[in-house]
Each structure stands twice: as C-alpha cells, then as structure tokens.
Design a protein that fits this description.
With 152 residues, the chain is mostly helical. Helices cover 51% and strands 0% of the residues. The protein has helices at 22-35, 72-96, 101-134, 140-144. It starts with 21 loop residues before the first helix and ends in an 8-residue tail after the last helix. It binds zinc ion.
Amino acid sequence: MSASQPSPIPLRTEEWRLPKENGPRLRTLLGRAFRRVCPYCGQSKLFKRWFNMNDQCPHCGVIYNREDGYFLGAFALNLVVAEFIGMGAVIILLIRSNLSILQQEAIAIGVAVLLPLLFYPFSRTLWMTIDLFFDKELTRQHVTGSKMWNKK
Ligand SMILES: [Zn+2]
C-alpha cells in the first residue's frame, strides 16, 4: 500500500505506547524490533511471513510505510550489517583457519548471501526503531502520510 491509498483500518493513536524518555523509549523500541511487532503499540505482528510485511497495524491502524522510500534506510542498514559481519568472518577465516581458499570462499559467499536474507525483517524493524527513537513528536499527520487523513 502506498501512502496515497485510503486506509481500511482506522487510526487509533490512543493505543500507541511509547515512552518519551530516551532510555525506556530505546528499550521499548528494541524489544519490539526483535520481537517483530508494531513499534507504535507493540500489540500485533509486523510480518505476515519472513519477507512479507503488513502494510498497516491491525491493532492501532498505523501505516508502516510513512512515505515513498521510507524503507531505503532499512536496505542500507541490511547491506552494511551483513557485509560487515560477512567481511569480518572472511578476515577471521583468512587469519585463523587452515581451510583451503575454495572452502573459505564458499563460506564467505554463503555468509554474504544468507545473512542479508536472515537479517531482512530486523533491518526494517531496526530502521523503524531508529526513526521512532528520534521522532518523539508522533503526530497523526506525520505518521500517516500527508493528505489521506485530511480528506475526510
Ligand atoms: Zn500498532
């Protein structure tokens, strides 16, 4: 769903439970990110399947894709994390193992391919964590896109 389509689930901001203080807010958001639940209310799952994210929270009605390109940061986060861990594994293998070059390359390629797939949902939830940690003033218009809620 893009931000311009009408919302089938009404927005219920009164269901949002996010502390304003930095420490509790970060702990709450990280807990929800690793459980892969709605970062706003913590009540419903973000993903239908591993790669298939809900468009909107069935409990509080927030639209997750706040604007076009919102999750580009998640792709960058996924790439950076996966490549750092993958490169770290390769460097450790080069220095400390007695494996052949072919075996090391097979492991490195496996890590480079599998890690971004395994980290994919967490890259999205952690991206939303970063966003919501710094955006403490959650207004209805800001979170739901610019025009769709104002047309009613
Ligand atoms: Zn929610």
